[in-house]
């Protein structure tokens, strides 16, 4: 199992704009590491630099502890799976899978045996003589996976491999790729713009925006304590609700929409640079309330939209000039236009400095609420 270290890695293209900025991260041997961020944030560029398909403009990359900056792709001991599969249309499934081996000059008999084993593992045994155009999207995706893993490379890089599949198949392939990675024990670096894939597949995820690392961590930690408002909005669906709060240093509190006040201790207050903060709360931590009550951080809203998803109910409403969401377990009989008293769970709030955007107050009840002892 190999590690991949990126040290102060930059990338500029001809227009001299930095598209990857000072990336520092160590991907551990055998880790499933997800690079996630919006389209155009530099994910593919970063992956292609690790693969050696793109030069780095500054910094250094180490693979298995050894400097790899000047190694060609073939010497980096990695395989790659792309979004468009890149299968050869004129070749059969078998030849496509064996393509990686031909380069390595393995004898034909051994090649056939290896191809059969991998095809069995991925459920492709019945399709070996077919051409890619006679396969479904999911089967083509499996051929691309097979071609990557047959090379026995200790590192596999995947760039949005599931984007072309429908939602149901994507969910199925998520689990399949994750199981395969565990079984093979390879280091897998996986690029996606889809936060659900990041949350469900990664041992750790790295959130990227405009070429810069926003946060690296276990998916659940990133979800519970997003490092800044960008991550709070990007991870989670619907996103974390955010609003502006004003700091009152004399009274030791933050006020929201004039009516609600959140007490804050003097030490934390000293960490806030100016008098404005951004207060965030996940939709599942907004609760129903009997009536307006200052102590309970409760307020009245009019519901704009209701979605009942079978196991949960999603409510949309306007508060403090923003669209907010509440998400509750179960099927709630609530009508559009109805007025409701809601309350913010005090212990679930994130507070960010409005200037530096740093997380100043973390939710206090993460342990109790979301993490069953011994599981995570
Ligand atoms: N060959 C190139 N020449 C110039 N700019 C490029 C090139 N490839 C990518 N870019 C730019 O670099 C940025 C990051 O692109 P990319 O890594 O493909 O993003 P992502 O994979 O996150 O969608 C984008 O602004 C893109 O336009
Ligand atoms: Mg890309």
| Largest sheet strand order | 6-7-8-3-9-10
Number of strands: 21
Number of distinct helices: 10
- Report the sheet-strand fraction: 25-35%
How far apart are the first and last residues' alpha carbons, in Å? 24 Å
Small-molecule components bound: adenosine-5'-diphosphate, magnesium ion
Structural class: alpha+beta
Low-confidence stretches: none
What is the CA-atom radius of gyration, in angstroms? 24 Å
The assembly state of the depicted protein chains is: single chain
The biggest beta sheet reads: 6 strands, mixed
- Indicate the percent of residues in helices: 25-40%
Q: What sort of overall outline do the alpha carbons produce when their principal axes are compared? A: globular
The chain-level mean pLDDT equals 91
Describe, in plain words, how this protein is organized in 3D.
- By secondary structure, the chain is of the alpha+beta class.
- Helix content is 25%, strand content 33%.
- It has helices spanning 43-51, 93-103, 108-121, 137-149, 167-184, 195-201, 219-224, 229-234, 266-270, 366-370; strands at residues 4-12, 18-27, 32-36, 58-63, 66-67, 78-81, 155-159, 187-192, 204-209, 212-217, 241-248, 253-256, 260-263, 276-281, 286-288, 298-308, 312-319, 322-329, 339-344, 350-353, 359-361.
- The strands form 4 sheets. It has a 6-stranded mixed sheet with strand order 6-7-8-3-9-10, with helices on both faces. A 6-stranded antiparallel sheet has the order 13-12-11-14-20-21. The chain has a 5-stranded antiparallel sheet with strand order 15-19-16-17-18, with no helix packed on it.
- Helix 2 packs parallel to helix 4.
- It is globular, with a radius of gyration of 24 Å.
- The model has no long low-confidence stretch (mean pLDDT 91).
- Adenosine-5'-diphosphate binds at residues 13, 19, 37, 39-45.
């Amino acid at each position: 199992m190999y590690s991949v270290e990126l040290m102060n890695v930059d990338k500029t293209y001809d227009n001299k704009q930095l598209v990857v900025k000072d990336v520092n991260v160590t991907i551990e041997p055998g880790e499933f590491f997800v690079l996630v961020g919006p389209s155009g944030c530099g994910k593919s560029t970063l992956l292609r630099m690790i693969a050696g398909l793109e030069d780095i403009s500054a910094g250094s990359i180490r693979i298995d502890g050894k400097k790899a900056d000047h190694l060609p792709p073939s010497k980096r001991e990695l395989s790659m799976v792309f979004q468009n599969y890149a299968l050869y249309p004129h070749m059969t499934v078998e030849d496509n899978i064996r393509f990686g081996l031909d380069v390595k000059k393995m004898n034909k008999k051994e090649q056939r045996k290896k191809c059969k084993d991998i095809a069995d593992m991925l459920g492709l045994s019945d399709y070996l003589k077919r051409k890619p155009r006679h396969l479904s999207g999911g089967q083509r995706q499996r051929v691309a996976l097979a071609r990557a893993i047959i090379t026995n490379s200790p590192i596999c890089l995947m760039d949005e491999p599931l984007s072309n599949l429908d939602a149901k198949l994507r969910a199925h392939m998520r689990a399949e790729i994750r199981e395969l990675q565990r079984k093979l024990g390879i280091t897998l670096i996986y690029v996606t713009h889809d936060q659900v894939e990041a949350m469900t597949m990664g041992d750790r995820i790295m959130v990227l925006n405009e070429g810069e690392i926003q946060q690296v961590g276990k998916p659940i930690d990133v979800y519970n304590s997003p490092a800044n408002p960008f991550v709070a909005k990007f991870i989670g669906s619907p996103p974390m609700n955010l609003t502006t709060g004003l700091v009152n240093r004399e009274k030791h509190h933050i006020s929201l929409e004039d009516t609600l006040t959140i007490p804050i201790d003097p030490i934390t207050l000293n960490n806030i640079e100016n008098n404005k903060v951004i207060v965030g709360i996940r939709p599942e931590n907004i609760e129903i309330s009997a009536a307006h009550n200052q102590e309970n951080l409760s307020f009245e809203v009019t519901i704009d939209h209701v979605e009942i998803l079978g196991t949960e109910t999603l409510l949309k409403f306007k508060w403090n000039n923003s669209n907010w969401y509440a998400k509750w377990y179960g099927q709630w009989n609530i009508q559009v236009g109805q007025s409701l008293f809601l309350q913010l769970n005090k212990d679930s709030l994130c507070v960010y400095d409005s200037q530096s955007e740093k997380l100043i107050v973390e939710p206090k009840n993460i342990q109790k609420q979301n993490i069953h002892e011994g599981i995570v």
